[in-house]
Amino acid sequence: MAGITDVAEHTSLEKILERLGHIVETLEKGDLPLEQSLVMFEEGVKLTREGQRRLDAAEQRIEALLASETAPEASAQVVPIAVTGREAVASVRG
After folding, report:
1. In this structure, are residues 20 and 4 in contact, taking their beta carbons and an 8 Å threshold?
2. Which pLDDT does position 6 carry in this prediction?
3. Cβ neighbourhood burial of 21 (10 Å; 0-12, 13-18, 19+)
């Protein structure tokens, strides 16, 4: 059976944020038993970490693209460094 982290890795960032919103709303109501609240909280933490990982990767890609624009004399080459789900994270080497 796939764990929460496995599912998050194959889900779009938008879906992760949507699910996090639902989790927050549900937990804020306070209607769930403690054990269910803990399970939802754990899912939220894992989704948050995955979302942050993706945002960090996007930031690195943007920084690499901007760096290649400021150094046009260097021949920049995009080199894939990791592939997760439908995303490819790349770095620029000059």
Report:
1. no
2. 61
3. exposed
Phi-psi region of 76 (alpha: psi -120 to 50; beta: other; left: phi over 0): beta
37-86: pLDDT as tens digits = 999 999 999 999 999 999 999 999 999 999 887 765 555 566 565 545 54
Q: Cα separation of 2 and 86, whole Å?
A: 18
- CB proximity list for 65: less than 8 A, separation 6 or greater: 92
Count Cβ atoms below 10 Å from residue 12 Cβ, excluding itself.
12
Token code pair at residue 59:
């930031």
Q: Determine contact, residues 39/47, Cβ cutoff 8 Å.
A: no
Q: Is 11 left (phi over 0), alpha (psi -120 to 50) or beta?
A: beta
Provide the total of helices (H) and of strands (E) in the chain, helices listed first. Answer: 3, 2
Strand-pair partners of 82: 89
Cα(75)–Cα(73) distance, rounded to whole angstroms? Answer: 6
